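Model: Ready when you are.
Researcher: Fold this.
Model:
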Amino acid sequence: MESLRCIVVDDEEGAHRVLDHYIKATSSLVLVGNFYNAVSAMDFMFKHPVDLLFLDINMPGISGLDMLEAMSNPPLVVLTTAYTQYALTGYKYRVVDYLVKPFEIAKFMAAVDNVFARFKPPVARHADIPPPQTSDISLILKVDTGIVRIMTNDITHIQSYGNYVKVFTKDKMYLSASTTSEIEQQLDKRHFKRIHRSYIVALSKIQSLEGAQVLLENGLILPVGKTYKREIWEYFTNKG
């Protein structure tokens, strides 16, 4: 059997060091990513195959359980947390085992054994899975009502709004307790560019450049900051 591809999602550096050491000692597992928040981990899983997720629960922003709630088809999950009260809640998802920190390698290996007892190889091999198309890539946002998944192809622009960001699509605006920098990390830089400290735009939605402004297809005019003016002009000049 092929080694299982796993990732670690935890906001504590110490937890990563322990799990990295345990995983490297286990030839049946291969570590393909370390993430310190749910958003970056979910973004990775939308683009890459993952068989097993070692997941902390209490993390800033989106918690581990919120992350699982937002995923339609999560990989197998081993929860790793210092809190025992979430054990029963976790098993409503594809949670195979629950490791309470700190845990020794013997308990880790027992959890891995449970994982292999539950694991079913996919019908198609990972190498046969085509890369996601631009229209299939999504952005994960935490909003007042929970977590939403927005297809990036629908986004026109993103605006900084105090301690929040406004994400605009063709039909709706989403208000999220995040920063434009955090959102920018989730976006494909080939399709989105920052044009101002307060604005990120979808390049495909720009109709024209006029001095220090861009005109979007929907008629909205946005400012272009001095820091970003040269880059945005060079992009469109080279494209032409």
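Researcher: Now this one.
Model:
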Amino acid sequence: MRLLLVDDHKLFTDSLTSALVGLQKGNTVFVAETRAGALAYASAGQRFDVILLDLHMPGNDGMDNLTILRKAFDTACIVIVSGETDPRIVFQTIDHGAAGYVCKASDLQTLLEALDTVLHGGVALPSKLPRRQIQGAQLAPRPPPPHNPVLDTLSPRQREALFGAIRGQSNKVIAREMRVTTSTVKHHLAIAFKVLGVLNRTAAVYEANRLQLFPDMQSCQASPRPPEHSRSAC
């Protein structure tokens, strides 16, 4: 596993590097003390499986760092490692593309569990974090029991992602509700679209209505004719 630690506290990065390298043969750890140092790795063509990012570093806004590194390392899972414990900040980092959040006071085992979670497509959050409440939000209708032969070919998570897409939710919103990464959502949707024989969301809405996959959902209206297929997968 290739990891990049982006943190300006040398004592922390030295101890964490030693622990991660000694833990498993094949782990390679790189360190950057600034955002510019991290971006230099991107410019050099370096790629990482996981980036551990300190939220607060001198001279840069934490959310800006996250957004910029998310774009520079688009295939990496970014996990925030910070002393900040405000739930609003934690959820904000997930909204900005982080795959997980670990408090710096956590032990090594907690960090390792978080890494395992994000590498398997999940979202790692502190265990004592309260559930986010959205004011004014109404419970959306959930998918019916899987008795449709088309839906029977999909896993429960694939059906859930498809249901969100047909309701018009973005991949980010679907990922947040499912507590997975947007990459996982794209993977679920790619399979669901293949089963439906479509290439994009517009065609999926038409097929869902034509096949009456989600009959209790009122927000989708079937088009009078099938939309043109595009090359977009999601």
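Researcher: Key takeaway?
Model: The first strand starts at residue 2 and ends at 6.
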